[in-house]
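ZP: hey, is the magnesium ion complex queued? I don't see it on the tracker
AM: it wasn't, my bad. submitting now with these inputs:
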Amino acid sequence: MIDPKLPVLISAAMIQARIRELGEQISADYPDGHLHMICILKGACFFLTDLARAMKRDVSVDFMGISTYGRGKTSSGEVKVTKDLDIELEGADVLIVEDIVDSGVTLNYLMHLLAQRNPKSLRVAALLDKPERRLRPVSVSYVGFRIPDRFVVGYGLDYAEKYRNLDDICVLDEIPAL
Ligand code: IMP
Ligand code: MG
């Protein structure tokens, strides 16, 4: 059962309003051709579907599975591709869509990996950014919200696969036993 008492950090209405702004900004930044959006599974799939619909231009989507975290709250520091892309990136304007940038380990690895596939351009859109936690440099072109160093769940973000289906982004500081 979902705990209805989790404190809300960012409400569903705030998330949706910010995504509409991001959609307009990103659409304006790519005036030619179409944009190829890559969803980093699983957390970013909620953000991707709303962001894609907020775009005022043609987009295509693809999905990549990455694991870094296991079941807990701290990164193992190890990045594993669990599902590779279906579509080639050669010559494409590529936007990586991520739920949250924390240590930066995942995106730093991913940027290097995807840059080798010769896209025309490669940028990152992240719904959330925790800049205090950064261990590896990552250039994030589009950020929904900068948040403090708290563990958050909801709107795609999980703790041990739970809470992804919350509409709001909530703080989970008291961790229940797994
Ligand atoms: P990074 O490699 O440390 O930047 O971690 C990025 C990934 O860690 C994200 O895609 C999330 O899956 C996970 N993550 C980082 N912080 C949180 C959080 O506060 N809540 C839920 N997942 C998180
Ligand atoms: Mg996760």
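AM: back. The pocket of magnesium ion (ligand 2) is lined by residues 43, 69, 158 (CB under 6 Å).
ZP: great, adding it to the tracker
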